[in-house]
From TrEMBL, chain A:
<feature type="binding site">
    <location>
        <position position="157"/>
    </location>
    <ligand>
        <name>L-histidine</name>
    </ligand>
</feature>
<dbReference type="InterPro" id="IPR033656">
    <property type="entry name" value="HisRS_anticodon"/>
</dbReference>
<dbReference type="InterPro" id="IPR000738">
    <property type="entry name" value="WHEP-TRS_dom"/>
</dbReference>
<dbReference type="Pfam" id="PF00458">
    <property type="entry name" value="WHEP-TRS"/>
</dbReference>
<dbReference type="InterPro" id="IPR015807">
    <property type="entry name" value="His-tRNA-ligase"/>
</dbReference>
<dbReference type="GO" id="GO:0005739">
    <property type="term" value="C:mitochondrion"/>
</dbReference>
<dbReference type="GO" id="GO:0005524">
    <property type="term" value="F:ATP binding"/>
</dbReference>
<dbReference type="GO" id="GO:0042803">
    <property type="term" value="F:protein homodimerization activity"/>
</dbReference>
<keyword id="KW-0175">Coiled coil</keyword>
From TrEMBL, chain B:
<comment type="similarity">
    <text>Belongs to the class-II aminoacyl-tRNA synthetase family.</text>
</comment>
<dbReference type="InterPro" id="IPR015807">
    <property type="entry name" value="His-tRNA-ligase"/>
</dbReference>
<dbReference type="Pfam" id="PF03129">
    <property type="entry name" value="HGTP_anticodon"/>
</dbReference>
<feature type="binding site">
    <location>
        <begin position="306"/>
        <end position="307"/>
    </location>
    <ligand>
        <name>L-histidine</name>
    </ligand>
</feature>
<dbReference type="Pfam" id="PF13393">
    <property type="entry name" value="tRNA-synt_His"/>
</dbReference>
<dbReference type="GO" id="GO:0005524">
    <property type="term" value="F:ATP binding"/>
</dbReference>
<keyword id="KW-0547">Nucleotide-binding</keyword>
<feature type="binding site">
    <location>
        <position position="153"/>
    </location>
    <ligand>
        <name>L-histidine</name>
    </ligand>
</feature>
<dbReference type="InterPro" id="IPR033656">
    <property type="entry name" value="HisRS_anticodon"/>
</dbReference>
C-alpha cells in the first residue's frame, strides 16, 4: 500500500517535471528522456483500479442536447407553440416532482416505472410521469372549471430505453388540453384541427389521424362476447393491428389469451374496418352494435365530430379506425392517434403507418379524482411525441443538405492587422448596443484568414474588417462571406447598413 | 411512443374506488397538495417569465452563444464533491436498483461534464434550465427549491480577459434591458482573496471557511462576520482585523492601482496576478463602455469552490430615500467568474479547459417584476388571440366553425366559444376580459348580404366587409395596430 502511494507520488512529480519542461519549451531530447522515465514509472504502477475515475456519461436513458439538436428542437417547438397560441391556449408549468401520493395509483402497472426521490427526511416525492396528472392536480387545487392550456416539459419514466428508436427515460411532451363543460365535440374537433396543423407545418410527410371511441370499443367487445376480465388484454392485442396482420393477432388472442375463436372472428369483422363518416353511418345501422347503448353514444359523437372536421377542412386526414385501442382506460370518449405514412413503394400500394407521432382523447373522470368533493371537470387533449419528430426533422434537414446553424451571429468583427484589439472591442460593443448579433475572436492578434474561416464554419454572413488604413479613412470594410464582395462603409453608417442587409428593423424596441 | 399513462383495468377499478374513499387529505388543507418549496406557474406568471427569458436569451444569442441542454439528473458521482459546503443540499433519487442519481444542483458542473465527455476544447454556450436545491425555502425572498437558471459560459484557451470582459458586458446588457433600475457589478479575484488571506495570516486550511464568512458581508455587518470567523471558525482576532482593513475597500480601477502599491499585498505573487488581470479587465470594460457599472470590491468572496480567477456579482440598487444617501444593496441578481480547473476534474487525463461564465438569477428578477406589476395593478394578457368569431343568433355554429378555420389556416390567432348557441353579450364579454382586440360577427343579416362584420372591441365600431375579403382585411388591421 505504502509502496503504491510512494510510486504514485513519484509519478505525479515526474509528470509535473515533464509538464514544466514542455512549458519552458525545453529541448526535444530532454523532454523525450523525461517522458520515458514517466512511462516507466507508470508501467511499474500497473492498472489503476482503486482510483478508476468514474465513467463520463449521462444517466441511462437520458442524453444531452448538443447545439445542433437544440437548433432542431427550437424550430420544432416554435412551430408547435405558435399553433397552440393560434388557438388561444395559455401556458402553465408545474414542478418536476410531485408528492408521491399524487402520482400513486394513477398509472396502474406502469407505476413501477416512476422515479422516486430518496427519503431525505422531508416529504416523499416522485418525478412526474406525464403532464396530464399534474394538470388534473392543478385544476383541482386551484378549483378551476375551465381552461385551455398547453404545457411543454420533460417527463420521466424508468422504462427500458431504446434510444435509437427515440425512446428515452427523460423526454419532452407537448400537451394541449381543453378543460371544461362545453357543448359536445367542438373542443374535441379543435384538438384534431391542432394536430393536423402542427403535423402539416412540421413538413414531416403525409400523415393520418386515426379516431375511435372508448365507448364504441367497449360496446363492440361486449357484443362480441369478450368477458370483462379479458377486455384489457384483448385491447392490447387488437392494438397491434397497425404492425402485424390480423391472422397473427387472432392467433395471439385465441392461442395465448384464451379467447374463444368465434368471439375472435366477430371482433375481426369489426376491427379490420376503417373509413370515413360513411363507416360511422354504416355501424349505426349494424344490427348488433346498434343494440349497445354505449356504442351508440360513441357513434353519435363521432358523427358529430366528422361534421365539424369537415367544416374545419381536415376530414380527408381522419380515419375512423376500429382497431385503435391503445391507452384505453385513461379515456372516456373519443381517442385519436396520428401516424406518419411512408410513401408507397409501388404505385397502388397502400401506405403503411410507421409509428405514431401524436395522440390524445377525452378523459372526463380524471380531475374528479383530485377534487375533494369528486367534482368532475371534463377534459379533452392531445400530446405531441416530439422526440421522434426531432430525429425525423434532423434527418430531413440533413437529407436536404440544409446547414443547421447553431448560432444566429450576423457579423464577425475582424482585424486585418495586429494591435487592433481595442478597435475591435469598441466596434463589437457598438454593434451589440445597436442590437446586432456580433462576435469577435478572443485573440489579441488573430490572422485574417482564421477569422474568415471561423465565419465560414459558423455560417456567419458578414465580416466587419478593421484595418489601419480604413481607420484613418473613417471606414470599415464590410465583407459578404458567401460572395466575398467587400465594400467600404463609413463608420457612422455601419449599423444601418448591417441592419439593412440582414433585414432587421432599424429600431430595437 | 410513450404518451399519456396507460392504465390497466384493475387500476381503473382502483381509481373508481378512490372516488368512494374520503377525499385526499392534501386537498382538505390538512396536508400540502404540493411539494414544499415548489410552485406551479400560472398563465400570469408564465407570461412575465417568458418575456424575461426572451430578453435574456436574445442577449446570449446576440453574443453568438449556442444553446445546449442536459438531463435533470446526473450520476451522483458526477456531482459529488463539486460544491464544497453546499453538498448537503442536493436532491438524491432513491436507489431503485439502477445507477445512483441526483438532481442537478446547477448548470455549471453538467457543463464541465459535457465538455469532458465530448472532448470539447472550445465552446460558447448558454443553458436555460431548472436546478434543484434542498435549501430551506424562504418564499418571501423568491427562493425556491426548484428554480430556473440562465447560464452563459465561454470555454477554451484564449488571450486573457477578453471573454471575461464579454461576460460582464452581457450581464450589463441584460440588467439594463430588463429595466430593473440601477445596478452595480462587484468584481474581485479568487487569487486576490487567497493572497489577501495569506498576507493577513489566515492558515491555508481555513481559507474556504473564512471565504464563506466574508461572502456574507453583503447581508451581515462586519462585526457579525468577524464574530463568526473568530468565535465559530477559530480565527485569531488580529488576523480578522487585518482582513477587515481590506474587505471594506471598494472602488474603480484606481483601487486596483492602489492595491498594487499595498506593502503587504504586493509581496504576494497570487494577489499580483489577480490584480494584473483586473487591471486588464478594466481596460476592456472601458472600451465596452461599462466601466462605470463595475466596482472592484474586496469583500466579494462567492460561495462555490470552483472559481480560480475573476469573480463577479451584480446587485440592484434601491433608489436613495434622501438626496446624498448611499444606494443600498437589495440582493444579487446575477453572478459568475472564472473556473479553470473544473473540466480537468472530469477528464480522465486531467486535461484542463479554462472556463469563464455567468448565471442570471432569474427567479429573483421574476419576483421583482411581479411585485412591481402588483403594486402598479398591471394585468397581463395570458393569450395572444387576435380575433374572436361570434354570432348574434342561434344555429350559426357551422358558420363560425368555417370562419375560424379560415382564420387559423391564414395563421391568424382566433377563438370562439365552445357553445352551439352562445349569447352575443357573453361572447363580447369574453373578448373584453381576455383582451381580444377584434371580433368577426356572422349572423342572418350578414349571411344574406354576403358580408362579415368586423368589430373593434375597444372602440365598438363595426364595419361590414365582403366575405371573400375578410381575411385580408383582418390581416391589414392587425399589421397596422
Amino acid at each position: 500500500m505504502a509502496e503504491r502511494a510512494a510510486l504514485e507520488e513519484l509519478v505525479k512529480l515526474q509528470g509535473e517535471r515533464v509538464r514544466g519542461l514542455k512549458q519552458q519549451k525545453a529541448s526535444a531530447e530532454l523532454i523525450e528522456e523525461e517522458v520515458a522515465k514517466l512511462l516507466k514509472l507508470k508501467a511499474q504502477l500497473g492498472p489503476d483500479e482503486s482510483k478508476q475515475k468514474f465513467v463520463l456519461k449521462t444517466p441511462k436513458g437520458t442524453r444531452d442536447y448538443s447545439p445542433r439538436q437544440m437548433a432542431v428542437r427550437e424550430k420544432v417547438f416554435d412551430i408547435i407553440i405558435r399553433c397552440f397560441k393560434r388557438h388561444g391556449a395559455e401556458v402553465i408549468d408545474t414542478p418536476v416532482f410531485e408528492l408521491k401520493e399524487t402520482l400513486m395509483g394513477k398509472y396502474g402497472e406502469d407505476s413501477k416505472l416512476i422515479y422516486d426521490l430518496k427519503d431525505q427526511g422531508g416529504e416523499l416525492l416522485s418525478l412526474r410521469y406525464d403532464l396530464t396528472v399534474p394538470f388534473a392536480r392543478y385544476l383541482a387545487m386551484n378549483k378551476l372549471t375551465n381552461i385551455k392550456r398547453y404545457h411543454i416539459a420533460k417527463v420521466y419514466r424508468r422504462d427500458n430505453p431504446a434510444m435509437t428508436r427515440g425512446r428515452y427515460r427523460e423526454f419532452y411532451q407537448c400537451d394541449f388540453d381543453i378543460a371544461g363543460n362545453f357543448d359536445p365535440m367542438i373542443p374535441d374537433a379543435e384538438c384534431l384541427k391542432i394536430m393536423c396543423e402542427i403535423l402539416s407545418s412540421l413538413q414531416i410527410g403525409d400523415f393520418l389521424v386515426k379516431v375511435n371511441d372508448r365507448r364504441i370499443l367497449d360496446g363492440m367487445f361486449a357484443i362480441c362476447g369478450v368477458s370483462d376480465s379479458k377486455f384489457r388484454t384483448i385491447c392490447s392485442s387488437v392494438d397491434k393491428l397497425d404492425k402485424v396482420s390480423w391472422e397473427e393477432v387472432k392467433n395471439e388472442m385465441v392461442g395465448e389469451k384464451g379467447l374463444a375463436p368465434e368471439v375472435a372472428d366477430r371482433i375481426g369483422d369489426y376491427v379490420q374496418q376503417h373509413g370515413g363518416v360513411s363507416l360511422v353511418e354504416q355501424l349505426l345501422q349494424d344490427p348488433k352494435l346498434s343494440q349497445n347503448k354505449q356504442a351508440l353514444e360513441g357513434l353519435g359523437d363521432l358523427k358529430l365530430l366528422f361534421e365539424y372536421l369537415t367544416l374545419f377542412g381536415i376530414d380527408d386526414k381522419i380515419s375512423f379506425d376500429l382497431s385503435l385501442a391503445r391507452g384505453l382506460d385513461y379515456y372516456t370518449g373519443v381517442i385519436y392517434e396520428a401516424v406518419l405514412l411512408q410513401t408507397p413503394a409501388q404505385a397502388g400500394e397502400e401506405p403503411l403507418g410507421v409509428g405514431s407521432v401524436a395522440a390524445g382523447g377525452r378523459y372526463d373522470g380524471l380531475v374528479g379524482m383530485f377534487d375533494p368533493k369528486g367534482r368532475k371537470v371534463p377534459c379533452v387533449g392531445l400530446s405531441i411525441g416530439v422526440e421522434r419528430i426531432f430525429s425525423i426533422v434532423e434527418q430531413r434537414l440533413e437529407a436536404l443538405e440544409e446547414k443547421i446553424r447553431t448560432t444566429e451571429t450576423q457579423v464577425l468583427v475582424a482585424s486585418a492587422q495586429k494591435k487592433l484589439l481595442e478597435e475591435r472591442l469598441k466596434l463589437v460593443s457598438e454593434l451589440w448596443d445597436a442590437g446586432i448579433k456580433a462576435e469577435l475572436l478572443y485573440k489579441k492578434n488573430p490572422k485574417l484568414l482564421n477569422q474568415l474561416q471561423y465565419c465560414e464554419e459558423a455560417g456567419i454572413p458578414l465580416v466587419a474588417i478593421i484595418g489601419e488604413q480604413e481607420l484613418k479613412d473613417g471606414v470599415i470594410k464590410l465583407r459578404s462571406v458567401t460572395s466575398r464582395e467587400e465594400v467600404d462603409v463609413r463608420r457612422e453608417d455601419l449599423v444601418e447598413e448591417i441592419k439593412r442587409r440582414t433585414g432587421q428593423p432599424l429600431c430595437i424596441c | 411512443m410513450p404518451l399519456l399513462g396507460l392504465l390497466p383495468r384493475r387500476a381503473w377499478a382502483s381509481l373508481l374506488s378512490q372516488l368512494l374513499r374520503p377525499p385526499c387529505a392534501s386537498c382538505t388543507g390538512a396536508v400540502r397538495c404540493q411539494s414544499q418549496g415548489t410552485r406551479d406557474l400560472s398563465p400570469q406568471h408564465m407570461v412575465v417569465r417568458e418575456k424575461i427569458l426572451d430578453l435574456v436569451i436574445s442577449c446570449f444569442k446576440r453574443h453568438g452563444a449556442k444553446g445546449m441542454d442536459t438531463p435533470a439528473f446526473e450520476l451522483k458521482e458526477t456531482l459529488t464533491e463539486k460544491y464544497g459546503e453546499d453538498s448537503g443540499l442536493m436532491y438524491d433519487l432513491k436507489d431503485q436498483g439502477g445507477e445512483l442519481l441526483s438532481l442537478r444542483y446547477d448548470l455549471t458542473v453538467p457543463f464541465a461534464r459535457y465538455l469532458a465527455m465530448n472532448k470539447v476544447k472550445k465552446m460558447k454556450r448558454y443553458h436555460v434550465g431548472k436546478v434543484w436545491r434542498r435549501e430551506s425555502p424562504t418564499i418571501v425572498q423568491g427562493r425556491y427549491r426548484e428554480f430556473c437558471q440562465c447560464d452563459f459560459d465561454i470555454a477554451g484557451q484564449f488571450d486573457p480577459m477578453i471573454p471575461d470582459a464579454e461576460c460582464l458586458k452581457i450581464m450589463c446588457e441584460i440588467l439594463s434591458g430588463l429595466q430593473l433600475g440601477d445596478f452595480l457589478i462587484k468584481v474581485n479575484d479568487r487569487r486576490i482573496v487567497d493572497g489577501m488571506f495569506a498576507v493577513c495570516g489566515v492558515p491555508e486550511s481555513k481559507f474556504r471557511a473564512i471565504c464563506s464568512s466574508i461572502d456574507k458581508l453583503d447581508k451581515m455587518a462586519w462585526k457579525d462576520v468577524r464574530h463568526e470567523m473568530v468565535v465559530k471558525k477559530g480565527l485569531a482576532p488580529e488576523v480578522a482585523d487585518r482582513i477587515g482593513d481590506y474587505v471594506q475597500c471598494h472602488g474603480g480601477v484606481s483601487l486596483v492601482e492602489q492595491m498594487f502599491q499595498d506593502p503587504r499585498l504586493s509581496q504576494n505573487k497570487q494577489a499580483l496576478e489577480g490584480l494584473g488581470d483586473l487591471k486588464l479587465l478594466f481596460e476592456y470594460l472601458t472600451l465596452f463602455g461599462i466601466a462605470d457599472k463595475i466596482s472592484f470590491d474586496l469583500s466579494l468572496a462567492r460561495g462555490l469552490d470552483y472559481y480560480t480567477g475573476v469573480i463577479y456579482e451584480a446587485v440592484l440598487l434601491q433608489t436613495p430615500t434622501q438626496a446624498g444617501e448611499e444606494p443600498l444593496n437589495v440582493g444579487s441578481v446575477a453572478a459568475g467568474g472564472r473556473y479553470d480547473g473544473l473540466v480537468g476534474m472530469f477528464d480522465p487525463k486531467g486535461h484542463k479547459v479554462p472556463c469563464v461564465g455567468l448565471s442570471i438569477g432569474v427567479e429573483r428578477i421574476f419576483y421583482i417584476v411581479e411585485q412591481r406589476m402588483k403594486t402598479k395593478g398591471e394585468k397581463v394578457r395570458t393569450t395572444e388571440t387576435q380575433v374572436f368569431v361570434a354570432t348574434p343568433q342561434k344555429n350559426f355554429l357551422q358558420e363560425r366553425l368555417k370562419l375560424i378555420a379560415e382564420l387559423w389556416d391564414s395563421g391568424i390567432k382566433a377563438e370562439m366559444l365552445y357553445k352551439n348557441n352562445p349569447k352575443l353579450l357573453t361572447q363580447l364579454h369574453y373578448c373584453e376580459s381576455t383582451g381580444i382586440p377584434l371580433v368577426v360577427i356572422i349572423g342572418e343579416q350578414e349571411l344574406k348580404e354576403g358580408v362579415i362584420k368586423i368589430r373593434s372591441v375597444a372602440s365598438r365600431e363595426e364595419v361590414a366587409i365582403k366575405r371573400e375579403n375578410f381575411v385580408a382585411e383582418i390581416q391589414k388591421r392587425l399589421s397596422e395596430s
